[in-house]
């Protein structure tokens, strides 16, 4: 099969990803083999490729937003030909303190798709049968792929922030995840305020119904009940904190952050404001979000790239040159 591999992490401008021929993977017990129909491109992939997350494998096939068709290893619940999705969490140990308490997103020994195991930048991929999700029939492959991480983790971020219907919510950064989260917020009748860099991102936020749109660290004109930061920038976190009412919550949706600068506790955090991190997702998050996405007819804005242009897709992501989500098509 054709696959895109990372042998040595480098800055994306050095084109570290290579297209190669690999043997088609064979599913182990408890796994299914998928013919990959689409794979979303995520900022976490960029952190892996550029070495901001430590290298786990000497040769890796990245990609963790996989839309695939089951071609081997079927079960009664997952028959041959079924279209399913794979996300960032590809498995858990099921026995650690966190798993035993229903906190599988914090598992001590997780499997990460496209990081600790090979992922979906390929024509075929294997996945644990208990970590794949049947996909809504009203979403085609291209538009389903971004839901599998960008959508799910954005949905979890709103849960971590404690968003309630009708609240004022700020989104700081407006890429693949935020442009899906805004649709969930509208379904909750929330007022949405967006701070983001890039004129095209601001224009997209306006077109999707944001009440107010400003620059990346610009303060909204009202105090926010909740905020979610999507940019991997500590300055943006501080900007979100400065926008909160007393008792408000900021959820940081980032697997990697450059740093958190020093800030004034008395002005920004006192008053029972909260700063929380978002770590991974659970299967319950995935199922609940995919059901909601089908109900509200969620339609991501997507730009497609052929598989052999994975370097170009990640470079476009890094440079904020595309709005919405990016997807590789084998």
What features would you describe in this structure?
The protein starts with a strand and ends with a strand. It is built from ten helices and 17 strands. It has helices at residues 43-49, 97-100, 141-144, 150-161, 178-187, 199-207, 234-241, 265-268, 283-295, 310-318; strands at residues 2-6, 17-21, 31-41, 65-72, 83-86, 89-91, 111-112, 124-128, 132-134, 168-172, 191-195, 212-214, 224-229, 244-252, 274-277, 302-306, 325-329. Helix 4 crosses helix 5 and helix 4 crosses helix 9 (283-295). Strands 3, 4, 5, 8, 9, 16 and 17 form a seven-stranded mixed β-sheet that branches. Strands 12-11-10-13-14-15 form a six-stranded parallel β-sheet, sandwiched between helices. It has a two-stranded antiparallel sheet with strand order 1-2. It is globular. The chain has 330 residues and is of the alpha/beta class.
Q: Which percent range describes the beta-strand content?
A: 25-35%
Q: Give start-end ranges of low-pLDDT stretches.
A: none
Order of helices and strands: EEEHEEEHEEEHHEHEHEEHEHEHEHE
Radius of gyration: 19 Å
Q: What is the global morphology?
A: globular
Q: How many helix segments?
A: 10
Helix- and strand-based class?
alpha/beta
Helix content, binned percent: 10-25%
Tally of extended strands? 17
**Mean of the pLDDT scores?**
94
Largest sheet at a glance?
Answer: 7 strands, mixed
The termini sit apart by: 10 Å
């Amino acid at each position: 099969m054709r696959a895109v591999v990372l042998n040595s992490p480098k800055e994306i401008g050095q084109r570290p990803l290579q297209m190669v021929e690999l043997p088609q993977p064979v599913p182990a017990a408890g796994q299914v083999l998928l013919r990959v129909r689409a794979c979303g491109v995520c900022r976490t992939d960029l952190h892996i490729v550029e070495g901001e997350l430590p290298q786990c494998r000497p040769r890796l096939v990245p990609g963790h937003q996989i839309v695939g068709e089951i071609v081997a290893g079927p079960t009664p619940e997952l028959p041959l030909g079924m279209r399913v999705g794979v996300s960032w969490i590809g498995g858990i140990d099921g026995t650690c303190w966190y798993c035993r308490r229903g906190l599988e997103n914090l598992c001590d020994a997780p499997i990460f798709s496209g990081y600790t195991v090979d992922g979906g930048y390929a024509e075929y991929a294997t996945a644990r049968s208990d970590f794949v999700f049947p996909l809504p029939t009203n979403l085609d492959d291209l538009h389903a792929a971004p839901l599998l991480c960008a959508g799910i983790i954005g949905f979890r971020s709103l849960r971590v922030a404690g968003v309630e219907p009708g609240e004022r919510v700020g989104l700081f950064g407006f890429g693949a995840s935020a442009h899906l989260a805004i649709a969930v917020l509208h379904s909750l009748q929330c007022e949405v305020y967006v701070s983001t860099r890039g004129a095209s991102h601001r224009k997209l936020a306006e077109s999707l119904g944001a009440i107010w749109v400003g620059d990346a660290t610009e303060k909204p004109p009202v105090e926010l009940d909740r905020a979610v930061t999507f940019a991997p920038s500590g300055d943006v976190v501080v900007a979100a904190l400065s926008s909160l009412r007393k008792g408000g919550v900021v959820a940081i949706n980032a697997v990697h952050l450059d740093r958190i600068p020093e800030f004034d506790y008395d002005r920004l955090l006192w008053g029972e404001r909260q700063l929380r991190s978002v770590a991974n997702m659970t299967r319950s998050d995935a199922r609940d979000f995919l059901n909601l996405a089908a109900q509200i007819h969620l339609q991501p804005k997507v730009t497609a790239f052929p598989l052999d242009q994975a370097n170009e897709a990640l470079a476009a992501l890094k440079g904020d040159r595309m709005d919405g989500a990016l997807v590789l098509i084998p």
